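Office hours follow-up: a student asked to see two folded examples consecutively, so here they are.
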Amino acid sequence: MDIKSIYYERLKEERRKKGWTQKEAAEKIGISRSYLSDIENGRTLPSGRLFLGINEVLPIFLLTNDADRVRCSRDGN
């Protein structure tokens, strides 16, 4: 399974865990339901900016705190 397929599956899984419909999740992300469907079903890959926006609503790979922890560990804090 490639990284794209993993992303699509995890996105759908996280949305379902929250009990959201595609419409509800799309509204929270700020995109159309049909566009979210295209992403979840592997028909399109979101841009970098949208990827980060989706991750804020449905954290899949990088939690906001993770970036802070990585930076702090590199700074020795």
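And the second, which I mentioned at the end of office hours:
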Amino acid sequence: MRTFNITAPDRAILSKISHHIDNLTKPKGSLGMLEDLALQISLVQQTLTPELRNPHNILFAADHGILDEGVSVSPREVTWQQLAHFSRGGAESISYASRMDSNLCSSTPELTLIYLKGMA
């Protein structure tokens, strides 16, 4: 069995990371939770310039019955059509994953989509 020794990151760099994020060319806090995530990744990696290696964007889709409540603007079939469109390289999510040198994965019972770098 593999064992891990995971320790909490050294928080001494936290104020430097926060200062760096807050002073980028953008209004302070304008990226919302993305700034929190950047801070967390920077803290774990103990650097002001974190690096994501082999990132993945994961899309989830499901038929969870909300359509029956009458709140959806699209019929049930549209979800699967959209995922099929993604699998052919369509939609901004594919473009985003490609620009970020990322993998894009989506899995549903009816359709499995795996976008790997270089497919689009």
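Two things to take away from it. The beta strands are 56-59, 103-107, 112-115. The first strand starts at residue 56 and ends at 59.
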